[in-house]
């Protein structure tokens, strides 16, 4: 064997300008989208020689960047340039978390590398390049189990200190002012939405994406959109409210659909799943305590967190609708309103549900007369009798001269106060008594105080929670009712 065929194993820390014929063993911590140019992929077998080269037909080529790590401190970027088929092979063969051997890469200083401006920030002053000058695979999966275990343990070692992260609430509050900027985040996965496909009009190609809702202790949820197939597949393994992500250089984008700030994966983005940081348990504890269903949110709003006496901003129904869907939409997802309106729906004596039940242990909504708590880890799951409590869950429509606000919710103690009746006595009432109770409010002008939460990354619909309702004095209505 010739001396130039002998390769030695080097670490990232040992790489310098004179490094040649070496093998780097490292774990993939980030992977860019594969990009193609000069033609179209022909879907040939990997490393199959292109017979078209001899006929003068241009061969599609591509580029892919892998960010590698082999110690707590050391990271480096490796850029692969090759035929489209080779890039497709590497893109499909290696995912984040795989341990690989990189054979005989070229070494260059990253100071002068233009590609480093669009790659993740690393500790090494050098970058690696792999090209297709050989028909032997230069990147292969590592076979040593001991090295694999040691290197995969690095996947949970944070790349930045948690103190360098920004609360989601600060980013959302900045609004469009930070659009295009990049920030470090420590967040919990709140929801992983199904993969969706769209057709790009300009190229007529079908592209896939996935939305993942992220939250932290400061904000209930911000959408991060993933376009990379690698990240889409990786996100399938994330468990809502249990997976913590440390995201380095997440890009801020303004979502026209949600009318608020969102996040995206930038070429420089690196995501660490379940990092070894002391804040992890606090985040998970907070995530487990938040309201998870719409009824939970409504009950939380009705619990007295906002004193109804402080809600004095008078709005018509149209103004409320404009604040939620129209021209007056603001970046804050919650506001309050005092609306002088007629109650046009209050179905206390009909078929509409007016009383719901929830588990006394975890407060989860329970459906069905004999059903137990749906959570298998809750004590109420094994105690259908005596493990539930009833509460008012009313759907109310209010109408004024500008329109109708449908689907308002009036729940729990707010409903008991308004109706002057608790759930137990209400259940004992006859239909005639319930009808009489309904007509005490139906079609009468009332002063309705609401907390409104706009649809957002977390909710697909607006929530209108009535926190106080009383028959309005006609003189007060005449003096304060707005035209618009």
Automatic annotation (TrEMBL):
Q: Which InterPro entries match?
A: MEIOB, NA-bd_OB-fold, OB_MEIOB_N
Source organism's superkingdom?
Eukaryota
Gene Ontology terms: biological process: resolution of meiotic recombination intermediates
Q: Which residues form the MEIOB-like N-terminal domain?
A: 10-158
Query: Does this UniProt record's set of keywords contain DNA-binding?
Result: yes
Matching entries from Pfam families are given as:
OB_MEIOB_N
Alphabetically ordered keywords of this record: DNA-binding, Meiosis
Q: Which GO terms describe its molecular function?
A: single-stranded DNA 3'-5' DNA exonuclease activity; single-stranded DNA binding
Protein family membership:
Belongs to the MEIOB family.
Name of the protein described by the UniProt record: MEIOB-like N-terminal domain-containing protein
Species this protein is from: Anopheles maculatus
According to the entry, what is the taxonomic lineage of the organism? Eukaryota, Metazoa, Ecdysozoa, Arthropoda, Hexapoda
């Amino acid at each position: 064997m010739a001396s130039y065929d002998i390769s030695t194993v080097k670490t990232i820390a040992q790489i310098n300008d004179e490094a040649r014929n070496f093998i780097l063993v490292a774990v993939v911590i980030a992977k860019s989208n594969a990009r193609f140019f000069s033609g179209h992929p022909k879907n040939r077998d990997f490393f199959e020689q292109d017979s078209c080269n001899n006929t003068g037909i241009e061969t599609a080529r591509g580029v892919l960047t892998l960010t590698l790590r082999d110690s707590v401190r050391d990271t480096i970027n490796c850029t692969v340039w090759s035929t489209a088929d080779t890039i497709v092979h590497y893109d499909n063969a290696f995912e984040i978390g795989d341990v690989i051997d990189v054979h005989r890469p070229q070494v260059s200083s990253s100071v002068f590398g233009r590609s480093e401006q669009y790659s993740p920030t690393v500790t090494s002053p050098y970058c690696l390049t792999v090209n297709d000058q050989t028909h032997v695979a230069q990147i292969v999966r590592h076979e040593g189990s001991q090295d694999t275990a040691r290197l995969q343990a690095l996947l949970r070692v944070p790349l930045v200190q948690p103190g360098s992260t920004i609360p989601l609430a600060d980013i959302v509050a900045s609004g469009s002012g930070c659009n295009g900027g990049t920030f470090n985040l420590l967040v919990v996965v709140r929801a992983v939405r199904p993969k969706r496909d769209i057709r790009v009009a300009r190229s007529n190609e079908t592209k896939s994406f996935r939305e993942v809702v992220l939250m932290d202790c400061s904000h209930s949820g911000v959408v991060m959109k993933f376009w990379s197939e690698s990240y889409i597949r990786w996100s399938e393994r994330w468990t809502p409210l249990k997976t913590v992500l440390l995201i380095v250089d997440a890009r801020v984008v303004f979502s026209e659909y949600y009318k608020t700030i969102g996040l995206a994966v930038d070429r420089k983005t690196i995501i660490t799943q379940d990092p070894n940081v002391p804040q992890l348990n606090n985040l998970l504890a907070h995530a487990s305590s938040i309201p998870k269903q719409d009824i939970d949110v409504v009950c939380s709003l009705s619990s007295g967190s906002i004193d109804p006496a402080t809600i004095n901003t008078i709005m018509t129904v149209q103004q409320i609708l404009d604040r939620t869907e129209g021209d007056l939409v603001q970046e804050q997802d919650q506001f309050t309103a005092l609306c002088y309106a007629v109650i046009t729906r209050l179905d206390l004596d009909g078929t509409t549900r007016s009383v719901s039940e929830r588990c006394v242990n975890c407060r989860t909504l329970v459906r069905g007369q004999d059903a137990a708590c749906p959570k298998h880890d809750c004590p109420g799951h094994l105690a259908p009798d005596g493990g539930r409590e009833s509460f008012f869950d009313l759907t109310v429509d209010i109408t004024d001269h500008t329109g109708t606000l449908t689907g308002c919710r009036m729940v729990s103690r707010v409903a008991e106060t308004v109706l002057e009746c608790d759930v137990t006595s209400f259940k004992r009432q006859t239909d005639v008594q319930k009808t009489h109770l309904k007509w005490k409010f139906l079609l009468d002008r009332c002063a309705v105080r609401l907390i409104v939460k706009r649809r957002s990354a977390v909710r697909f619909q607006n929530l209108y929670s009535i926190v106080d309702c009383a028959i309005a004095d006609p003189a007060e209505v005449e003096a304060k009712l707005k035209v618009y």
